[in-house]
Amino acid sequence: MTEEMRRILVISPSFPPKNTADLHRVRVSLRHYSGFGWDPTVLCVSPECCEGLDDPALAESLPANLRVVRVKAWDEATCRHFGFGHLAYRSAIPLYRAGCKLLRREHFDVVFFSTTVFLTFVLGALWKRRYGCRIVYDFQDPWYADEPIYTPDTVPGRWWKYRLDQFLARFLERYAMRAADHVVAVSDGYVRDLSRRYGWLDRSKFTVLPFGGSYDDYDFVRRHNIEQNLIRPDGRSVNWVYVGRGGSDMAPVLSVLFTALAALQRADPAFALRLCLHFVGTNYAPPERTHKLVEPLARAHGVVSLVHEVSTRIPYFEAISLYAASDAILLIGSVHADYTASKLISCVLSKKPVLALFHRGSLVAKMAAEFPNVFLATFDETPGEPAFEAQVVRGLEWLRAPAFDVCAVEARLAPWSADEMTRRQCVIFDSLVEPAALSATSPVAPSGIAS
């Protein structure tokens, strides 16, 4: 690698002060890119044009010298008159024009798309054809799925729109992937599916890379005295928290948890009177359209008195403060093995006991098993398996009296830090400029979790 700083253009349509789940790989990496010889410029959409929660503190946490280029997307209200309003459709052309302007005037060694606004991946193919860019895509979710992920009853929005989106995704993903120089994914399942569909991409062009965790987030909360206002520890109450989306794919896992919770309530009613499970930010819909997803399920299992749900999202650093104030943290997985919870390492960093309920084949299950402060319960095919139910019961008992070595947690965190995850990204970027660089450090996830 030369002494001269290389340049990377990062495409992240939603960006602080907006708070969306798909921006956090970029956010935690920005502070570390320069240490590995890369100078980032972020191309994003102006916050007033984006959906999602406004989170000024998230913007304040960004590096002071970061260059951010913001563009205005088409007006949402106007676009909805024509039958579309999603950011993907409103921002594609404005981002394309802004990217063309940047790439025409300046040299960037790599263009990195890290977003779930997948339509923007098409811009990579257009820019590569026009400017010869090196393109890296980050798949945090599936864009196109061979089998529908949702049913007419579970789809968020209208079924026909989902089916139309998937029809377009089938062809647009293929077009975009022809431009890929490398693909990062949070799940080996995504790599398997993409490499099978696009045989011209060798497996060496893929890297499984989970989200890293940053101590800076907890330091930021302490320095700025950011406080959550959902729980007030009083020395008697017991507060277990879950922060993140709910959904139909998580309902079978939650059903097992609530069945075990009902048994605990019957066996120890005195403890149950002190216990509250807080589910926060479970619905990504805007505040005026949000509704509760977890409490109805808790009611059906007879444990609604133990469950408190706040369906609207809360600012990111308030969530970190909530972890720090809790007695324990819950991580709820999906029935799908490819689902990867990006917040795992952030939860582990709290040093609180964590109960993680996931498909055995998920990357989260492999990662969670590394940490002494995580009790992992897994299922092979369905959460209804008796073995999984028994593990969840044991997990609740462990949460009541957890025992683990905090120093051992510290020792296991280094391979999953934001610094290390950024280094692995930069190995990929280096390899596109100097192909020999990748052979020096194999692009695999930590602890031998292969891509």
Task: Give a quick set of tags describing it.
seven-stranded parallel β-sheet; single chain; Rossmann fold; 2 domains; 451 residues; alpha/beta; 39% helix; 18 helices; 15 strands
Structure described in brief:
With 451 residues, the protein is an alpha/beta fold. The protein is 39% helix and 16% strand. The protein has 2 domains: 6-212 and 417-442, Glycogen Phosphorylase B (Rossmann fold); 215-412, Glycogen Phosphorylase B (Rossmann fold), CATH 3.40.50.
Describe the structure in your own words.
This protein is α/β, with parallel strands linked by helices and 451 residues long. It has two domains: 6-212 and 417-442, 3-Layer(aba) Sandwich (Rossmann fold), CATH 3.40.50.2000; 215-412, Glycogen Phosphorylase B (Rossmann fold, 3-Layer(aba) Sandwich). The chain is built from 18 helices and 15 strands. A seven-stranded parallel β-sheet has the order 5-3-1-6-7-8-9, sandwiched between helices. The protein has a six-stranded parallel β-sheet with strand order 12-11-10-13-14-15, with helices on both faces. Strands 2-4 form a two-stranded antiparallel sheet. α8 crosses α12 (316-325). The model is unreliable at 440-451 (pLDDT under 50).
Can you list the strand order of the major beta sheet?
Answer: 5-3-1-6-7-8-9
Report the sheet-strand fraction.
15-25%
Number of continuous helical runs: 18
The end-to-end distance, rounded to whole angstroms, is 24 Å
As for the CATH topology of the largest domain, it is: Rossmann fold
The helix content is 25-40%
Mean pLDDT: 91
